[in-house]
Design the sequence.
């Protein structure tokens, strides 16, 4: 037959609740605290990673902007230098043309003076040459 012993049943309940209390006090609570601390560390690490990625992205964007500004400034400097070179080249060419014109005028004046001198010499000698030519021609016809 089946009989229920009340004292054993009470001791079983007492042991069960005592074991439940001890497990909760010394096992579940420390383990759950440890797990919560671990999860907090993991969450903090993930948040730090997100922050680092965000900062890295901001730095990458700032670097891209700085590169674009540097390229624009370099292009502007190259353009300004090219414009300055073009202006200086035009000045040098204009100065060279002026010098060439002055040299040409001086050369032309020297040539004109030499031509005038040679014409005067030819004109002075033309009379003698004409007289000699006329004498030879007359001397042959006679």
Sequence:
């Amino acid at each position: 037959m089946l009989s229920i012993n009340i004292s054993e049943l009470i001791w079983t309940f007492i042991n069960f609740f005592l074991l439940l209390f001890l497990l909760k006090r010394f096992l579940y609570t420390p383990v759950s605290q440890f797990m919560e601390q671990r999860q907090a560390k993991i969450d903090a690490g993930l948040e730090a990673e997100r922050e680092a990625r965000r900062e890295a992205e901001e730095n990458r964007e700032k670097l891209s902007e700085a590169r674009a500004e540097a390229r624009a400034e370099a292009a502007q400097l190259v353009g300004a230098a090219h414009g300055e070179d073009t202006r200086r080249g035009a000045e040098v060419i204009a100065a060279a043309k002026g010098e060439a014109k002055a040299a040409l005028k001086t050369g032309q004046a020297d040539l004109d003076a030499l031509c005038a001198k040679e014409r005067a010499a030819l004109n002075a000698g033309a009379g003698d040459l004409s007289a000699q030519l006329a004498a030879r021609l007359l001397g042959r016809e006679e």
In short: Residues 131 and 137 are 10 Å apart (CA to CA). The chain has a mean pLDDT of 90. The two ends are 196 Å apart (CA to CA).
